[in-house]
Amino acid sequence: MNRQKSFVDSKPTLFLVATPIGNMEDITFRAVKTLQEVDVIFCEDTRVSGKLLHRYEIKKPLKSYHDFNKEVGSKEILNHLQGGDNVALISDAGMPLISDPGYYVIQDVIHEGYHVVSIPGVSAVLTAISVSGLVPHPFLFYGFLDSKSTKRKQELQQLKHYPETLVFYESPHRIHKTIKDLYEVFGERKLTLARELTKKFEEVIRGTTKDMQEIDDIKGEMVLVVEGYQPSTEQPTTTILEDVQTYIKNGLSSKDAIKKVAKERNVPKNDVYMAYHQES
Ligand code: SAM
């Protein structure tokens, strides 16, 4: 067990500071104050973060941190904390760690007994959910799906029966293929595509996985918010046994008939198997 009293016990602290996702004004007073007060700031890309610091006249040493050089990155941050420094970690946009680097370093910092404090702010996931028009919670934030279609479809298969609203980050060059895979695996569901949030060309497209198939050349940063699985409220007029028997009469093997009925009713194959064998 690890109990951290963030502002009662005085310890060197790693601050996770949220930065804007487009509109430079989306930064909190506390975030600016924290960045002005820490001893050193670690970021993903010094050119991107340099512009933000310049805008808010923050003059602090800026160093780069990447998860892919996680050992080196964590070590440098730990050295600062060991020396008594307070450290800030920022990403190129939004909340650090949310589809961004930071997870490994906070593991090490917690392990070494220093404080980890969040200075919260904007994140694309909540911004998109709030304007989506879809049920806001419970939601499941998935982040990025795999870039390869086969793997992506497997990931979607696993999520297919989740009742929660699903949120994905996506890049513009894959968006058409991802929407195609969403329709193929989920069928028709409500879908909101929120792009360039907080920026001049912000756009929110609310539709379905079916009618968004036509979306092709869409640019910018984007989030997909997808309606969760809705079990059909219509009660079937036939029993499972009757359905299986009908398919068998029509020439399917009992195995294939069970598989088909399970798929149609969205129930586990084993349930159909049991119903068929117990009742027939
Ligand atoms: N840490 C960020 C956050 O808290 O949202 C996310 C960083 S992740 C590397 C970048 C992805 O976030 C983009 O590919 C896009 O899916 C989403 N994103 C970031 N900014 C966005 C914006 N202004 N509008 C829509 N999506 C955005």
UniProtKB/TrEMBL annotation:
Checking Pfam families in the record gives: TP_methylase
Which keywords, in A-to-Z order, does the entry hold? Cytoplasm, Methyltransferase, rRNA processing, S-adenosyl-L-methionine, Transferase
Going by the record, the broad EC class of this enzyme is: transferase
Reactions catalysed, semicolon-separated, are: cytidine(1402) in 16S rRNA + S-adenosyl-L-methionine = 2'-O-methylcytidine(1402) in 16S rRNA + S-adenosyl-L-homocysteine + H(+)
Q: Which GO terms describe its molecular function?
A: rRNA (cytosine-2'-O-)-methyltransferase activity
- The residues covered by the Tetrapyrrole methylase domain are 13-212
| Domain of life, per lineage | Bacteria
Gene Ontology CC entries for this record: cytoplasm
UniProt-listed InterPro entries:
4pyrrol_Mease, 4pyrrol_Methylase_sf, 4pyrrole_Mease_sub1, 4pyrrole_Mease_sub2, rRNA_ssu_MeTfrase_I, SAM_MeTrfase_RsmI_CS
Q: What is its EC number?
A: 2.1.1.198
| Matching SUPFAM superfamilies | Tetrapyrrole methylase (SSF53790)
Q: Please indicate if the UniProt record lists Secreted as a keyword.
A: no
Q: Where in the cell is it found?
A: Cytoplasm
**Where would you say this protein principally sits, based on its record?**
cytoplasm
Task: Give the signal peptide range.
Answer: none
For this protein, the record's HAMAP family field holds:
16SrRNA_methyltr_I
Task: Identify its protein family.
Answer: Belongs to the methyltransferase superfamily. RsmI family.
What this chain does, per the entry, is described as: Catalyzes the 2'-O-methylation of the ribose of cytidine 1402 (C1402) in 16S rRNA.
Protein name as catalogued: Ribosomal RNA small subunit methyltransferase I
Q: Can you name the source organism?
A: Candidatus Xianfuyuplasma coldseepsis
Q: Which gene encodes it?
A: rsmI
